[in-house]
Amino acid sequence: MAMFLMMIGHNQRYVVIKRRFQHSKQTIHKFFYEVLDKMMLFAKDMIVPTSFNPNPNIPGHNKRLRKVFKGAVGALDGTLIHAIVPKAQQDLYRGRGKGDCYQNVLAICDFNMIFTFIVAGWEGVAHDSRILSEALSDLDAPFPFPPPEKYYLCDAAYAHTRGFMAPYRNVRYWLGDFRRRSALTNKEKFNHAHAKLRNVIERAFGVLKARFPILKRMAPFPLATQRNIAIACFALHNFIRKEGLSDDFFAQYDQPNVSLQNSHVHVNGNEDEVEAHGTAADRDYMTQLRDGIAEQLMQNIE
């Protein structure tokens, strides 16, 4: 276990582990995969769906906004994790505008930065909405779809429909956009408030990647192993948070307005790229709900 944690927590290679623990590469390889297999079982206990009734007293910021977005049960987003990919497959995993390759991971977290659902191993070029659409229809790993009146906060890379509340398109959204000029219209006020709450998943990703540098520079394992390493990191992240351990990484990222924009998502993206799901009635319902929250924010907040 110590060898495994040193490899994923300090991104050390076999040669360094061999020198530190005085074991052969074959022994290290054997133990690494034994622990990784157990971590897949551990992940099933650590990464579990939310109860959909979030505790209003969860430590954190923006409690007043959480009361306005009273149906919000967490945030949903994708993140890119570095991958080592065979040359023949690199075009599928290459990040947008970058030379490196990545796997795309879809995740949901609650307002305490605990991940409640993940889908790992997708190609880096896969659109976030496509990954969500596939996850919604995957019978082997049932998606934790919110009950009526509940929803996840997501950015404009996803469809705005029942269960998923996205911001207004073509309106300022990222927290950095509001630092020089305050929100003026009801749509801008909604987007600013939405971004403050949805920022929890950006901060959770920030903690995850700061703690596990292997996610930013992956070791040359097979792709299936790289996917499982990512899952193990998510599970260990949750364990530390759930145990309430004093932790410098959580303390660093548990700030109210940390701006950690995901570079592969654009709020002004082409709506045609977003895979729609749900019915027209579902989309109309969420549009009316969003408009109502925007009006409430215009009257009562800031």
From TrEMBL:
UniProt-annotated location(s): Nucleus
Positions of the DDE Tnp4 domain: 76-238
GO MF annotation terms: hydrolase activity; metal ion binding; nuclease activity
Positions of the DUF8040 domain: 1-40
Stored InterPro entries: DUF8040, HARBI1-like, HARBI1_dom
Pfam families documented for this protein: DDE_Tnp_4, DUF8040
Main location: nucleus
Cellular-component GO terms for this entry: nucleus
Keywords linked to the UniProt accession: Hydrolase, Metal-binding, Nuclease, Nucleus
Swiss-Prot/TrEMBL cofactor(s): a divalent metal cation
UniProt family annotation: Belongs to the HARBI1 family.
Protein name (Swiss-Prot/TrEMBL): DDE Tnp4 domain-containing protein
Provenance organism: Deinandra increscens subsp. villosa
Organism lineage: Eukaryota, Viridiplantae, Streptophyta, Embryophyta, Tracheophyta
